[in-house]
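Entry 0007
Protein: Peptidase S8/S53 domain superfamily
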Amino acid sequence: MELSSLIVPNNKKHFVVVFIGLVLIFKIALITAANEKSQIYTVHLGERQHDDPNVVTESHHDILGPLLGSKKASHESMIYSYRHGFSGFAAKLTSSQARELSGHPDVVRVTRSKNMKLKTTRVSDYLGLTSAAPTGLLHETDMGSEAIVGILDSGIWPDSKSFNDNGLGPIPARWKGKCVSAEAFNASSCNRKLIGAMYYSKGLESKYNGSFNAAEKGEVMSPLDKIGHGTHCASTAVGSFVPDANVLGLAQGTARGSAPRAHIASYKVCWNNEECFTPDIVKAIDHAIRDGVDVLSLSLGSEVPVDFEVDRDDFAIAAFHAVMKGIPVVCAGGNDGPEKETISNVAPWLITVAATTMDREYFTPITLGNNITLLGQEGLYIGEEVGFTDLLFYDDVTREDMEAGKPTGKILLFFQRANFEDDFAAYAKSKGAVGVIIATQPTDSIDASTVDIAIAYVDNELGMDILLYIQTTKSPIAKISPTKTFVGRPLATKVARFSSRGPNSLSPAILKPDIAAPGSGILAAVPTGGGYDFMSGTSMSTPVVSGIVALLRKKRPDWSPAAIRSALVTTALQTDPSGEPIAAEGSPRKLADPFDYGGGLVNPVKVADPGLVYDMGHDEYVHYLCSAGYDNTSISKLLGEIYTCPTPIPSMLDVNMPSITIPYLSEEITITRTVTNVGPVGSVYKAVIQAPQGINLQVSPETLEFGSNTNKTTFTVKVSTTHRANTDYLFGSLTWADNEGHNVRIPLSVRTRVFNFKI
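Output (structure tokens):
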């Protein structure tokens, strides 16, 4: 009894303490919710459930309104309604609201907005895409006439000569897009070449809470391109013929895109050379599907770690809907090479592009006092020749001597180092030097100097040769001559150092990149200077492929995006057009493999007649999604129909890609592929196997026959390893060859894992 009387008061005290604690927690939660910062989220709803776009938008407010308390609040929060190619919306939400919305039965995924990055005319002739040829893809498609290429980038400079509409026919009747007038851009500047110009900034403005100052950022709120990236990409893909295009006299010649008579639809989604927000990109894709583009070209991407396609990648989801409607989506692989596993845009429905050099380079002659001439690369020097003068090694010059003007009238040799933050050329000029030779790691990019001083770049090996000359010569001297253009052999092609590499870090069994194209030192239109300039990056290789895809869409209108990707991969070159093997720039340089360039260098001469294609559609993409572990609910919402993954879950190794990539091989496995005949009826193909070292391959059947009633057939590949220890990836190929000149080649990449480190 006494004990009980002692316990009761303590219980009451505990109750009071708990009650007060709960009140405090509740108040803190209310304060937190009130102060919780809103961010932009994209809400994916999958396929449209209504044909009327207005009804689709109203359904979006029906979902968002109850969460926010009213339709008015929904209208204030929503910045985009995606209602043409697919269903979804972008809205300003708190993280707690986003979490609550993700549980709605109609919602596929809710993802937070992110910032993607831009992946910054010799090309056509180099690839054999010559306008003078009486036959070939250009001739057979009237150079892409009536094709429409959608460019999602930094906008367009409509006054460029590359966008003249001389000789073009009328705007295709199916076109539903438009040009909009806005700051410094008049819709009347569009023509039969530039038929669409839109801009998307709500995602950008929401990030800055409506305070984005375009003028301070060097931007204008319109479709106008202020940085040049979008103009460069558009002219590379489909630029019209422009004679005598050059940069200060270098690379003079006729500039044109891969499909010079195709039309351009420009969608500005990138601002200030760095800010490309996913809600804006998704809305542009939504409009492009509605407008009627034939190809989408996006020279932008994210960085590693890449996002899961259905869970977090807004762009990949929007691109999926475009592909399902027959629109190929061509994307940059990224500029984070040469390190492995840096490739971006890895979804299997995308065409992902790597970058190579080509057979045009720019050399800056450096002549030493011993009459040996070395060739500097990558930088452009357009000034007057600097005659023979004293040559000094920068490390031999003290700070006091630099300040006293010892370099005056001399040339300095400098080895680039990470801890030297200033522009060395500008620093040397400020101390009186008349020239600099900078030894550095090659970048495979070409840039004109912004400093009025003679400048030449060499690799560290040549730098050491010059240093040896300095250290063994009593009075070393040198001269630097203006940059010269060299075209043709013996300049072999290589995968550019900056080009991002595989394997695919998200789904290692899906080979990325798919294909490579020239992307180093590409001359194309820009808004400034003489109207043309060099740029380098997978941003530049991407529109090369986009233009070729536009030609294919004209030549083969019944082909799916996957069939087009297959044709690009299986006809690609593993040697450059002169027959030399393609190397991969890196540390060290090596022969290129599928993780460097996918199937190889794009080959427009053969691409329209591949013989066989590895096609993919609804079923194959669902196969991938199931094998990647996405759940039935997410897949069903994405497709707009009820779908249940089969049991057992299919293997990702059997996704019908034009490649075979096996990340973990320990015991014998059997892989399945299906090919479709797009060549002559009655074709017979035989398997030609180049097995990776130590890997056994058995193809069944070894002969494929296509009669009048058989245009599709399936084959299997048994794969086993003889290795007794874990290996790195080893490479080979499987080619189906007929007697008509078709060699349908897919790359093989196999890694033995006797002991698998993945638990």
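Curator remark: The domain at 39-112 is CATH 3.30.70.80 (Alpha-Beta Plaits). The radius of gyration is 29 Å.
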